[in-house]
Amino acid sequence: MNNMGIVFNQSFKNTLILILGFAIGGINVLFLYTHFLEAEYFGLVTFLLSSANLVMPLLVFGMQHTIVKFFSSYRSREEQDNFLMLALFLPLLFIVPLAFLGTIFYSEIAQFLARENIIIERYTYLIFVVAIFMGYFEVFYAWSRVQLKSVFGGFVREIFARICISALLIGVYLGWIDNETFVYAVAVVYLLRMLIMKVYALWVYFPRFRGFTLPVNIREILSFSVYIILAGSAGTILLEIDKFMIPQLTDIAEVAYYSVGVYIASVIAIPNRAMQQIINPITAKELNAKNLKEVENLYRRSSLNLLIVGGLLFLLINSNIREIYEFIDKPEYTAGMSIVLIISLSELIKLSLGTNGAILTNSSLYRSLFYFSLSMAASVFILNKVLIEQMGIEGAALATLIVVLVFGVIRVYYVNQKLGMQPFDRRTVLVLLLIGMIFAIFFSIQLNLPPILAIVIKSVAISIVFVFLVLKLRISEDLNSFFDSFVGRSNKD
Fold first, then answer.
1. Averaged pLDDT, 137-156
2. pTM score
3. Number of domains in the chain
């Protein structure tokens, strides 16, 4: 099977997992969290998990990215084993001293984070603990991905954790556990998730311990990791800083309203997350082999296909947004309705970049990620501070959109200047025109029906129109081939 065949095969499976995961997560966020848990505790859990994500890249020293970049460059089993053992133990050089410092200055850190919302103070230590669980999960997930085994890890990440959260929220509703116990139980879920991933990764590839022999390219590994950890930290800031900063500037319940809007919009990221799990190691492999033609091919095709699939999701969400919030039936959460469109646009921009991030991470250009990410982190921090104070949670969403758009353009230009490849052509423009036209038509249509029925009718109509036009205009060879083969198999059956 060729590279794109592997990408489509595992991306399809990963997409199904992500869709199921998002469906379960949607039930959690839109109904169980909003109806079973107080908004204050919903906001608290979101804050703790976002803060843990901010700390996580530092704790694991960017090893999840380092594994993907370097594993395929080793030719012997012994070299691969030594490298993976390093990936396991190197993070401890950061976790142990940071745990020591965190213990000494715990009171000061807790009081600083809780200055606007006192509820945060007693749970502050969970940020560090959960960050360790998250970090090692990503290390073991990367461990399995470089063996081109991404599906099970996707299942554990996207479905297992969310099912556990669903059970815990139902437990709160039934009175089996209280709000405080729920917070601690969420941390236990992340521990279990990490342990399951560890067992699977070792089953896929079990390294033989031959003593602490450092890889021959240890200096290159450390150099890459330093840049990636800084870039990763800065990149995570872009994703999570809004949910961290909102409680520092306003009531923590606002985080809950914001999170609902962000979650609805993040459905658009499903195809990107599915494809990146497998296309990242393939891009690294082709770059290590200096096969730039195949890298460019993956770049263009992934950008176009992701934009098409993401565009359909964009239309389904934003054309039905009024009905979605009506269906949620929690009026206070409509404060986050405008968040959906703003974050949706930023997600659509990310999709259009295709493998841009994978190219920068796994090529000789990886040092540039540090400067890009640092600039993005600084920009989003400043914009968040200014815009949240002026516009509330809408300001946080707008800050994200501005930064994603500006730096997305810069990154595309940079890769084109350095490697002579860029993802866009006339088909990109055509897809954007289709999305804009269909959105303008269907957003203006309001059906005087129960919300769930209105959503179904509009969604079916949007899907038929969009898919028909994409296939009829033959915008994507990959999607047309996939459709033709699917129809062919159906006819045989």
1. 80
2. 0.75
3. 1
